[in-house]
Amino acid sequence: MATESLNGLPTAVVAVWVLCAAGWGVVLARLRGGVHGPARGPSLFAHAITPAGVILTCSLIGFGSLYATIALTAEWWALLLVTGFRPERLLSTGGLGRLAAWAAVTAAVACLTARLVFQV
């Protein structure tokens, strides 16, 4: 039986939520400091609406948002890892190699995290 922490929610789920919020905040802070010029506004706006958009999409299609939260958490932390905590590098200087590395790390972390959370 899983350890419970927040009104019966497993500790792993709470940890994913905390890591997701922390990853979102770190990417936001790094985008605010690193992106300049005309790309700044759209990149900050797109990043700011991502969590609400994911939750709304999951509720519209009737699919649980825990899988999406795991994927977002993996994406944000993989982005920070691959770009050296400078997310603007993904497109400005990264090329296809960095984009492929981001996708591979995201997939690996998402699969590992899902297995840990759901204990499959």
List the helices and strands and how they pair.
Layout: E1 4-6, E2 9-10, H1 11-34, H2 40-61, H3 65-83, H4 89-92, H5 95-118
Helix pairs in contact: 1-2, 1-3, 2-3, 3-5
SS elements, strand count: 2
Number of folding domains? 1
Output the helix-strand order.
Answer: EEHHHHH
Helix segment tally: 5
Strand content: under 5%
Low-pLDDT parts are none
Q: Label the structural class.
A: mainly alpha
- Helix percentage: over 70%
Outline: globular
Kindly provide the radius of gyration, computed on alpha-carbon positions and rounded to a whole number of angstroms: 15 Å
Largest sheet: 2 strands, antiparallel
Distance between the termini: 13 Å
Biggest sheet, spatial arrangement of strands? 1-2
Roughly what is the average pLDDT, rounded to an integer?
90
